[in-house]
Amino acid sequence: MTRFIAIFLTLVAGTVRAFQFVNVQGENETLVDLSDAALQDKKVGELVVTYYTFKSALEANINDLTVGTITLRDARDNVAAAARRLHPGYFTHIGLSEEGTTDEERIARNLVGHVRSNEEVTPNPNSRLPLIEKELRALLAENAVKK
Asked: What is the pLDDT of residues 10-39, one digit of tens each?
């Protein structure tokens, strides 16, 4: 009996899902091509996967920077490469949220900001934040000389 109820509910849910694709315009009803909907679902799924892959790379670089297994320059370069490959929209967002004249400068500032925020939540007696901020100042000075 339970199996029958499960099958019945699955069929009802599928039917309801199919009716969600019906577009009513006046008195005419037109059924949207389900292959278009499937393609859209696939695209959205791919965007979600690439975003979370990028987010994972960003968080890994923040963690590595915090514990000192990577330099700010390397973390910045890793995040920029991951953004180019997985989430190009990151450059737009970082341009709106961080100061700086280049994407690299804004990414470096953002990484330092993440380390700072993490340490505000969980204070670290062995904080590397002063060293990371010093590295940021050196990167900014280096970029100023290049201009």
From this structure: 544 444 454 444 444 444 444 556 667 777
CA pair distance 112, 136, nearest whole angstrom: 8
* Closest among 25, 86, 78 to 53, alpha carbons compared: 86
pTM for the complete prediction? 0.72
Tell me, rounded to whole angstroms, the distance of Cα 94 from its chain centroid.
11
Contact of 135 with 143, CB cutoff 8 Å: no
Judged by DSSP in three states, 32 sits in coil
Pairwise CA distance, residues 147 & 142, whole Å: 9
pLDDT digits (tens, 9 = 90+) for 69-110: 999 999 999 999 999 999 999 999 999 999 999 999 999 999
Sorted by where each begins, the domain ranges of the chain are: 1-32, 34-146
Q: For residue 133, what are its two tokens?
A: 């901020």
Ramachandran area for residue 19 (φ above 0: left; ψ -120 to 50: alpha; else beta): alpha
